[in-house]
């Protein structure tokens, strides 16, 4: 059933950030009705049978509804009156133009939790702008600290502002649900891609807000600690984290690197940072004597964090990842079982199910069932379909 099995959600989202927020709710049992355009327009994440949309929209039902039609808007408000949460990521002006904004919904459901994701916030100088992940990666400063020091800005290899904003909105929805359980009050919850990324800068951002220090790209090395980064092995590359005094000693002793341990320049964190270029070269001279597998085994046995650099296929086939069952099947009526990526949250009272409830539905697959549950007759549903409302 899941801890959210008592929660009903209307999902007006598209693209990635909003669906990522709703996915959190759906994966933990919420009943989610995805409201989509009857003409199939609006998708920017590929076809519904593709891996991206299947991973974003599993465990949902789909209702096609033309919100620009008076009957479509009336049906939406009828549905809104009986749900707990509405999630949308329209541009700020669009929800008002459609008449599905927070105040409009609150008029029919005062306890509604209305959740919004935008690119830059609900107001302000950029409030009306559209945004995508790449734009926000650049504007937030993230690209300036990603990549090699002399290589220019580099985007992160995933849609990190979308997925981060989705996670934060999901958390906000859960906070609002807790508040409503105690007080009965609904509210508007919102975040943006830009807010999410400014928060995600974390210690790199705090270096600026506290002291005015502007971080720069450091490649595969940690910006403030050494050694913590990527080093050469006999057959490739390896990640090693040995920056604290205790880990530095363990690292040197495990690899019998007595010269490193006794080197006065490397005796402190500050010294290792000051002489970081020479330190990198001296460590590489040691690690190149061992294979990646040998370094991983030897250093982890000594309590020094060390790991290989996998491609995505190698990561999913890693014994620990397989043990964690990070991929689970979702039944699809045409495509059969599809392996999708499970939620990373683990609850002792609600163990991870071995299967998803359902794969992502085709647009409108549940329209007739959802409207029948709302009390509409078969004749009325047929008329709505003929009029292009559903």
Low-confidence stretches: none
Strand order of the largest sheet: 3-2-1-4-5-6
Radius of gyration: 25 Å
Shape: elongated
- CATH architecture label of the largest domain: 3-Layer(aba) Sandwich
DSSP summary, beta strand count: 11
Largest sheet: 6 strands, parallel
Quick one: CATH superfamily of the largest domain? Crotonobetainyl-coa:carnitine coa-transferase, domain 1
Strand content: 5-15%
How many domains make up the coordinates?
2
Q: Using the coordinates above, name the CATH class of the largest domain.
A: Alpha Beta
Notes on the protein architecture:
The chain is α/β, with parallel strands linked by helices. The protein folds into 2 domains: 8-200 and 360-386, Crotonobetainyl-coa:carnitine coa-transferase, domain 1 (Rossmann fold, 3-Layer(aba) Sandwich); 228-309, formyl-coa transferase, domain 3 (2-Layer Sandwich), CATH 3.30.1540.10. It is 42% helix and 15% strand. The strands form 3 sheets. A 6-stranded parallel β-sheet has the order 3-2-1-4-5-6. Strands 7-8-9 form a 3-stranded antiparallel β-sheet. The protein is elongated, with a radius of gyration of 25 Å. The relative contact order is 0.13. The mean pLDDT is 97.
Helix and strand layout, with pairings?
Elements: E1 8-11, H1 17-27, E2 31-36, H2 51-57, E3 61-64, H3 70-80, E4 85-88, H4 92-98, H5 102-108, E5 113-118, H6 133-139, H7 160-183, E6 187-192, H8 193-200, H9 202-211, E7 228-233, E8 236-241, H10 245-254, H11 258-262, H12 269-274, H13 276-287, H14 292-301, E9 306-308, H15 312-317, H16 319-324, E10 327-332, E11 336-341, H17 367-373, H18 378-386
Parallel strand pairs: 1-2, 1-4, 2-3, 4-5, 5-6
Antiparallel strand pairs: 7-8, 8-9, 10-11
Helix pairs in contact: 1-7, 7-8
């Amino acid at each position: 059933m899941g801890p959210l099995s008592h929660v009903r959600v209307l999902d007006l989202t598209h693209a990635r950030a909003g669906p990522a927020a709703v996915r959190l709710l759906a994966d933990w049992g919420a009943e989610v009705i995805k409201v989509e355009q009857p003409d199939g327009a609006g998708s920017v994440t590929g076809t519904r049978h593709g891996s991206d949309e299947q991973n974003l929209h599993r465990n949902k039902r789909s209702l096609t509804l033309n919100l620009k039609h008076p009957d479509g808007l009336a049906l939406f408000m009828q549905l809104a009156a009986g749900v707990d949460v509405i999630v949308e990521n329209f541009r700020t002006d669009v929800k008002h133009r459609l008449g599905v904004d927070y105040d409009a919904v609150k008029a029919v459901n005062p306890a509604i939790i209305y959740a919004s994701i935008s690119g830059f916030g609900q107001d302000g100088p950029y409030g009306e702008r559209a945004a995508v992940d790449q734009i926000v990666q650049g504007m937030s400063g993230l690209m300036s600290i990603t990549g090699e020091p002399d290589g220019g800005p580099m985007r992160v290899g995933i849609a990190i502002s979308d997925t981060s904003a989705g996670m934060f909105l999901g958390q906000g929805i859960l906070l609002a649900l807790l508040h409503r359980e105690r007080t009965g009050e609904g509210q508007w919850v919102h975040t943006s891609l830009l807010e999410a990324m400014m928060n995600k800068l974390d210690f790199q951002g705090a270096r600026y807000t506290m002291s005015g220090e502007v971080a720069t790209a450091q490649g595969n090395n940690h910006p403030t600690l050494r050694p913590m980064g990527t080093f050469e092995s006999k057959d490739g590359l390896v990640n090693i984290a040995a920056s604290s005094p205790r880990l530095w000693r363990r690292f040197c002793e495990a690899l019998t690197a007595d010269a490193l341990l006794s080197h006065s320049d490397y005796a402190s964190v500050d010294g290792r940072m000051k002489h970081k270029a020479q330190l990198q070269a001296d460590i590489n001279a040691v690690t190149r004597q061992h294979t990646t597998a040998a370094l991983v085994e030897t250093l982890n046995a000594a309590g020094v964090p060390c790991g290989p650099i996998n491609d995505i296929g190698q990561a999913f086939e890693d014994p620990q990842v397989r043990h964690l069952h990070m991929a689970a099947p979702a039944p699809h009526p045409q495509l059969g079982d599809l392996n999708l990526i499970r939620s990373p949250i683990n609850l002792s009272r609600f163990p991870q199910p071995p299967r998803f409830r359902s794969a992502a539905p085709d647009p409108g697959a549940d329209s007739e069932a959802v409207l029948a549950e709302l009390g509409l007759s078969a004749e009325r549903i047929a008329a709505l379909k003929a009029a292009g409302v559903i």
